[in-house]
Amino acid sequence: MTQMSRVPTASLILAAGLGTRFGGRKLLAPIDGCPMLQHVLDLAAVAGLRPIVVVLGNDADELERACTWRDELRVRNPAPENGVSGSVALGIATLSRLGAQRVAVLMGDQPFLDPDHFRAILFARGQIVVPRYDGKPGNPVVLDHSVFPLARSLQGDRGFSQLFAAYGNLVTYVNLPGTNPDIDTPDDLG
């Protein structure tokens, strides 16, 4: 598959969550013989996103051994218990230093993202591009570099919904059918 986006786009993969509802080590859970995180890494690579920054947490050593890595830049969140905002700030700071102009933020626990949906999100224009599945905002979110400071200012574990509410004028929604489910518990794997 060729580059999915018409604009050069980097990727930030958030993979530092504690996975407490799952019982821990969530991103190592096997799906079709590979760790859950591997599916997200593969999607970003196939989409032609560059650079790819992956923020890892407490299970970083195990994930680094279990996954097949390409040229992803791996950074570690020293305090994942403080919520997703710390991982976002760390990842955006890293991408800013690398000169990224646009970034698709993927969640490590969403291994079933439809490639056609991802393509539609990547091709949309806007400062904050947000998919809506059956009317509900979801992930992945695409950010233009002009809103990187807003992303770095997120607090706690609520993620990008803080931006949607506070800066609605900057949000472009892409309406999509179906869902992009999070894997929160072992039952979510089927």
Strand content: 15-25%
CATH level-4 homologous superfamily? Spore Coat Polysaccharide Biosynthesis Protein SpsA, Chain A
Number of domains: 1
**Structural class category:** alpha/beta
N-to-C SSE string, H for helix and E for strand: EEEHEHEHEHEEEHHE
End-to-end Cα distance: 28 Å
- CATH class term: Alpha Beta
Task: Tell me the CATH architecture.
Answer: Alpha-Beta Complex
Total of DSSP H or I helical runs spanning 4+ residues? 6
Average pLDDT for all residues: 92
Range of helix content: 25-40%
Shape: globular
Biggest β-sheet description: 8 strands, mixed
CATH fold assignment: Spore Coat Polysaccharide Biosynthesis Protein SpsA, Chain A
Low-confidence stretches: none
Q: Would you report the number of β strands?
A: 10
- Calculate Rg over CA atoms: 15 Å
Describe the structure.
By secondary structure, this protein is an alpha/beta fold. The protein has a single domain, classed as Spore Coat Polysaccharide Biosynthesis Protein SpsA, Chain A (Alpha-Beta Complex). It is built from 6 helices and 10 strands, in the order βββαβαβαβαβββααβ. Strands 1, 4, 5, 6, 7, 8, 9 and 10 form an 8-stranded mixed sheet that branches. Strands 2-3 form a two-stranded antiparallel ribbon. The longest helix has 14 residues. The protein starts with 9 loop residues before the first strand and ends in a 14-residue tail after the last strand.
